[in-house]
What we know:
Helix content is 41%, strand content 11%. The protein is an alpha/beta fold. It has a single domain, classed as Rossmann fold. Strands 5-4-3-1-2-6 form a 6-stranded mixed β-sheet, with helices on both faces. Helix 2 (35-47) packs across helix 7 and helix 5 packs parallel to helix 6 (137-154). The model has no long low-confidence stretch (mean pLDDT 90).
Amino acid sequence: xxxxxxxxxxxxxxxxxxxxxVGDPDPSLxxxxxxxxxxxxxxxxxxxxxxxxxxxAIRGRKLVEVVDEQIExxxxxxxxxxTLYAGGNDILRPRVDIDALMARYDDAVGRLRAxxxxxxxxxxxxxxxxxxxxxxxxxxxxxxxxVREVADRHGATLVDYWRFEEYDDPRMWDVDRLHMSTRGHxxxxxxxxxxxxxxxxxxxxxxxxxxxxxxxDAVRANVRWTREYVGPWVMRRIRRTSSGKYLEPRRxxxxxxxxxxxxx
Length: 264
């Protein structure tokens, strides 16, 4: 009797800049970024080189765009594992109907779960420490509660970003203060793998204590940040353009990764 091998993982990552990998630059890769999802896929492939990985996430996408553009292609890929985060770009808009958005989100998660895939969902980050982004903290809390309900209803797994206190450190964030830094992406990959209960080799040295910043230097940094990042972001909102308007998915087709498997 021939022994059948266990099914290999086909991992499909869906969402916006968070999942695309913005903030973790790598000029050698499509769209010039790497990100936590790539690192998760690499760790899965280290354990099983048959692992396949697709990443359909594109920066700037709002929740309805993620649903309309990414869910059906993902379903067609017959995934065994899906990660989905969407809604952050909606929360930042002046007006948003969170209930209507989450109805679409609920339907999308149901379609993904109907494939038999394991689905990982994310709560939004708690922006209490940010003077600029904390204005949307209440919206994010409502979004998170609805995400928890969707996860419970469909048997999805939750990655509870809201409770990850390590992200209160500014060094976990890119210079734009909106996207995770490389360190933040590595940490998130570890958090996702821990949620999956999958062993991994992602380790980072502890950060040294933060050096206090003089008030004048902080003011200058805020002025520079406003000019270089907030201003262009506002202009894109006024013009109704997206930072990802001309981008294509980084990994549109599930395919193996070139990694050296772990022995034993």
